[in-house]
Amino acid sequence: MGNNNSVTTNSALKKHIETATKTGVLQYDNKKLKEISPALCLPGLRTLSLNDNELQTIPTEISLMVNLKNLSIRNNQIGQLPDCFGQLKKLENIQLSQNQLRTLPSSFANLNSLRHLTLSHNYFTTIPESILKLQNLQLLDLSSNEITQIPDQIQTLQVDELNLNDNRINKISDHIRFCPRLKTLRLNRNNILLDVIPNGLLTDSNLSLLSYEGNRFDEKAFQGKEGYEQYMQRFTASRRKLE
Prior knowledge:
The protein has helices at about 1-25, 200-205, 220-225, 230-240; strands at about 25, 45-50, 70, 95, 115-120, 140, 150, 160-165, 170, 185, 210. The protein is of the alpha/beta class. It starts with a helix and ends with a helix.
């Protein structure tokens, strides 16, 4: 019975691969897939979706997928990425939430086409340094990890929106105000005292939306913080642009 199921699975995957060679898109979600075979690593693929499977590793053959723009491997059991991952230089969108990642390879810094990176629901305790070197990132989602602080190196982060909801943050470097493009910062449900939020983030940055619910201070206290009026001017101006 088990062998028959395996044959059926292989046959179905083979059909998907044959179609993908023509379309450039391979979607094989929720199929109990346990490994990524070399046959699946097609150089012509632009989109690969393997969500909700049972993958534990990503093979080095993934480096063959030089035209890949969209990669989604949510809800698997992946513990690390291969060093060659940085060779996928056309990647624009990566979804790796709900895995078992704790670090990223240094080669990740080579993904200069990357626009959206989702690493929520993993086991990161720090913001990976390789992310801080990416030049074209628009959205970085590190929510629901185990991050405890925002370090000085954050000032090099090129991102429009940073999501750090549901972590364990209790320290924020004043250097965050130097992030050149940061407009939205999400810090809901952390362990943040009001004094931990740098005044400079409110008085002297481009930030126009700071979400902070579920921390160790309330809205009234936040309204009394130095820089609140300057922050609200930017907040109001950004809302008007959306109207």
